[in-house]
Amino acid sequence: MSQDIKVSDGLMNSLTKLGTERSKRSHFSWSYGNINNFQQYEAAYQESWIARRICDVIPSDMVREWRDIKCDKADEIRSEEDRLRLTSHLVTALTWARLYGGAGLVMITDQDLTKPLDPRKIKKGGLKRLMVLDRWYLSAGDMRIDNVLDENFLLPSHYIVPSSKALIHESHVVRIVGEPLPMRLSLQAQGWGDSALRQALEVVQDFTASVAGVAESMQEFNVDTIRKEGLFNELGSDQEDAIIRRFQAWGMMKSLFNVSLLDGEETYDRNSLTYSGIADILETQMKLVAGASHTPVTKLFGDSAKGLNATGEGDDINYNSFIRSEQVAKLDPALRRLDEVLVRSALGAFPDDFNYVWKPLDVQDPGELAQSNKTQADADIAYLDAGVVTISQIQRNLQASERYQFDPARIDELERIENLKVVQNGHDTQVKMTF
């Protein structure tokens, strides 16, 4: 009688049992992890320097160069950011978001926290301070699950601070969400995200255990071995105490006098442990930890780039691209709500020309920057001599790149004079001018 073999869709080999229920691979399955075990994440953050750096490094780099505000009263807005210690609070919130899966900045103003916040009523100095609370201190009230067209669908309408039972309307909270979760899991997490540390915790534990194992074995780098004829017979005749005293005395003499005295029937060997290949294994595990945390090995572990002519430049480029994507995905939405209040608190109103750009993350070497500026200056002079551009155009370009500051009215007047010269010369070609 033939035996039926259950198979699944995909490649199958009846001889090797690949694709059948007898294949080990067919029994793999994924299960949901516990996304609410924040005590374990806290313990890892406190006890493991690697876990701490996984949570701390990326938030610090996200605000390291900060942003460049583009409006006439940018200096006043920057002063307001300094007064509120905005970047410091953002680093804290981003760190808790990576540790717990989310955090919020509560905007403390003159308005009632239990009622919707109206940014249009914010006066100059109206934003008193910012308070950072992690997701476990912002327990969700009613979840908006009825109206799918609501912009806050699947998000809380208000928050409750468990320790004080304080009620905070969601409009007062600037949310910073951790790692993305599928919709159903996000609803289970009350609209928050996943912990970045949870996703990397398994490889962190493996690496920590490996390092601890190597450190433990270093205590027994050399193992002394003594061979004695008839030892097991003596052990069987209730002479264990005498044997133990014998070798305790041997060990003491060896330690104190550096002399090893043995009986004629005893032989002594010293065996040393070998650690070949362990460095490669640990290095591989370091790469796994770095990959799980989206942080280069050079930055996470403070290690230099390996290999011939290796500079780590490629790692920096990839890492900076990731940081920029995190700024766009996490900080931009948060700052959009925060700026509605912060800018009004700085100026008393929201200017029409307000905007900002993220500053470059790669800090250019001063020598390279000087050479780049010289190359650009030579090109501008060549274009000017050829009549391709005018002085006013070069000044506008320098002002836009923020290398120099010019009076806009002076540039406009210079441009008017240049256009007038063209008309007087009776042709449409730009002419060379000297000032």
What does this structure look like?
- The chain is mainly alpha-helical and 435 residues long.
- Helices cover 47% and strands 11% of the residues.
- The chain contains 14 helices and 10 strands.
- The strands form 4 sheets. The protein has a 3-stranded antiparallel beta sheet with strand order 3-2-7, with helices on one face. Strands 4-5-6 form a 3-stranded antiparallel beta sheet, with no helix packed on it.
- A hairpin with a 4-residue loop joins strand 5 and strand 6 (166-169).
Architecture blueprint of SSEs:
Blueprint: H1 38-47, H2 49-62, E1 67-69, H3 74-84, H4 86-100, E2 102-108, E3 129-134, E4 139-140, E5 158-161, E6 166-169, E7 173-177, H5 183-188, H6 196-218, E8 222-228, H7 231-235, H8 240-257, E9 266-272, H9 278-293, H10 297-300, H11 313-347, E10 356-358, H12 366-385, H13 391-400, H14 408-425
Antiparallel strand pairs: 1-10, 2-3, 2-7, 4-5, 5-6, 8-9
Helix pairs in contact: 1-2, 2-4, 2-6, 3-11, 6-9, 13-14
* Quaternary organisation: single chain
SSE order in H/E notation?
HHEHHEEEEEEHHEHHEHHHEHHH
Radius of gyration: 34 Å
Tell me about the biggest sheet? 3 strands, antiparallel
Number of strands: 10
Compute the average pLDDT: 83
Instruction: Give the low-confidence spans.
Output: 428-435
Shape: elongated
Adjacency order of strands in the biggest sheet = 3-2-7
Q: Briefly, what is this?
A:
This protein is mainly α and 435 residues long.
